[in-house]
Amino acid sequence: MQPYLFPYLGYFQLINAVDTFIIYDDVNYIKQGYINRNSVLVNGEAKRFTVPVPGASSFYKINELKFSTDVGKVLKTLQQAYCKKPFFTDVYPLIEQVLLSQERSIPLMCKQALTEIFSWLGIEKKLLMSSELHYERAACAVEKVVNLCRTVGAKEYINSIGGRHLYQSSFFAGHGLSLSFIKMHDIIYQQGNHAFQPNLSIIDVLMHCSPDDIRTYLQHYELL
Length: 224
What we know:
This protein is of the alpha/beta class. It has one domain (9-223). It has helices at residues 9-17, 72-82, 88-99, 106-120, 141-151, 169-173, 202-208, 211-217; strands at 20-23, 37-42, 45-50, 126-129, 156-160, 178-184, 221-223. The protein has a 3-stranded mixed beta sheet with strand order 5-6-7. It has a two-stranded parallel ribbon with strand order 1-4. Helix 6 links the parallel strand 5 and strand 6 (178-184). The longest helix has 15 residues, at 106-120.
C-alpha cells in the first residue's frame, strides 16, 4: 500500500493482518489524495488537516518528495481538539515527535509514524519499502504487485476492500498466490456527547481509546 500519514484505522488493520507489509513508495505521488492529509475531530465535527508537500506533483515518485516542516498549524489543531481527551498526555508526544522529525521523506516519515503507533500498542510488525526491493518495475500495475509478493516469498496477498475492482483472484492464483480483501467492521467508540464521526485519522482513535481497546479493534474485520 502507498504510505499515508496517520491514516484511518482500516489501514492499521491491514498491516496487523499480514506478516510483511510493503510500503509502496516508488510509484507516482497522487495530488489531492490522502498521503499528506486526513481528518480529526474538532468540536464534534470532522476537520481536515494537511501537512504540505513542497513541489508535489504526479510526475514525482512518492519517495522523491518530502513533507514540509511547516506543521505548527496541525499541532495547534491537535492540541486544541484533544487536550482534554483520555490519552492526550501519552499520545500527543508521539504525534509531535513524528511531525517534528528531522526526517522529512514522505515514506520514511510515514513509516516512523506506523512504527511508533504499533510500538505504543505493543505490537511488532515487519515493514519494508518497495524501493529497497528487487522486482520488475517496468511491468504493469498488477504484475508489479505480484512481483513484489514473490520477491518476499508471499503465498497470500491481502489488499484493502477498495482494491476489489482492480485485482482478480484468477490472475493471482496463476502466479501461486491467493488473494483476499480486508473489510473493516463498523467500529464505534466514545468520542463525546455528539454523533459518532467514523473513519477519522488513527489520531482520533489513539486519543480516545486504550491500547487494549485498539488491539481489539484491529481484529474487527473480515477477509473476502
